[in-house]
């Protein structure tokens, strides 16, 4: 029996191309004509799926956060049964991301810096941040008040900034050790 794989849809090709280019080079640095050319779609086809470059940016960010959410939630559950260990596993997952080839910081921080005034992009970044801010209370349940949650998120944010801005690829493990003390 032969199985065939479907080629990616036009929208998927556009998103795959945009994702690679926006993350590696920066959103504003990549002209929409380059995304169109690299994805192999026509300009008119691109605009059927995304009315503007900013719509494509929003879709890129939304896909990034949805994929990251799914990965974090499944890996946290798979790797640890205890709630405290699950919370600490979040830092391990970020550590793995920092060490991945091509790591160039947080795509949401990068997008917020490049598009500080675009409502749609700000909403997509806020959607991601709402998930980050709700992650530890979801994992830890009643034992996680707003102060603890904010502290753990701040540790995570600091690790992200240190990994990107300072090249400190061990920052997530340092943040994990601090979180372990707090918890």
Describe the structure.
With 183 residues, the protein is mostly helical. The chain folds into 2 domains: 8-51, Orthogonal Bundle (Arc Repressor Mutant, subunit A), CATH 1.10.10; 52-182, Orthogonal Bundle (Tetracycline Repressor, domain 2). Helix content is 74%, strand content 0%. The protein is built from 9 helices and no strands. It has helices spanning 10-25, 32-39, 43-49, 53-79, 83-98, 107-114, 119-140, 146-165, 171-182. Helix 1 packs across helix 2. The longest helix has 27 residues, at 53-79. The protein is elongated. The relative contact order is 0.11. Keywords: DNA-binding, Transcription, Transcription regulation. GO terms for molecular function: DNA binding. Residues 8-68 form the HTH tetR-type domain.
Write a concise keyword list for the protein shown above.
Tetracycline Repressor, domain 2; mainly alpha; single chain; Arc Repressor Mutant, subunit A; 183 residues; transcription; 2 domains
Count of strand segments: 0
**SSE pattern, N- to C-terminal:** HHHHHHHHH
CATH architecture level-2 label of the largest domain: Orthogonal Bundle
| Mean of all residue-level pLDDT scores | 95
Indicate the overall shape: elongated
**Cα distance, first to last residue?**
53 Å
- The proportion of strand residues reads under 5%
The CATH class of the largest domain: Mainly Alpha
Structural class: mainly alpha
Total count of helical runs of at least 4 residues: 9
CATH superfamily of the largest domain: Tetracycline Repressor, domain 2
């Amino acid at each position: 029996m032969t199985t065939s794989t479907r080629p990616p849809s036009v929208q998927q090709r556009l998103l795959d191309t945009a994702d690679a280019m926006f993350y590696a080079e920066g959103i504003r640095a990549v002209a929409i004509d380059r995304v169109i050319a690299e994805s192999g779609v026509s300009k008119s086809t691109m605009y059927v799926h995304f009315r503007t470059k900013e719509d494509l940016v929003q879709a890129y960010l939304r896909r990034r956060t949805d994929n990251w959410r799914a990965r974090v939630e499944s890996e946290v559950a798979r790797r640890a049964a205890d709630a405290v260990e699950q919370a600490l596993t979040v830092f391990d997952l970020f550590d793995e991301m920092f060490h991945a080839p091509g790591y160039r910081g947080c795509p949401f921080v990068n997008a917020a810096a490049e598009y500080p005034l675009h409502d749609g992009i700000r909403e997509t970044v806020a959607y991601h941040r709402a998930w980050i801010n709700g992650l530890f209370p979801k994992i830890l349940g009643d034992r996680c008040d707003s102060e603890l949650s904010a502290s753990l998120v701040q540790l995570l944010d600091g690790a992200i900034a240190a990994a990107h801005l300072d090249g400190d690829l061990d920052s997530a493990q340092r943040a994990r050790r601090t979180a372990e003390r707090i918890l």
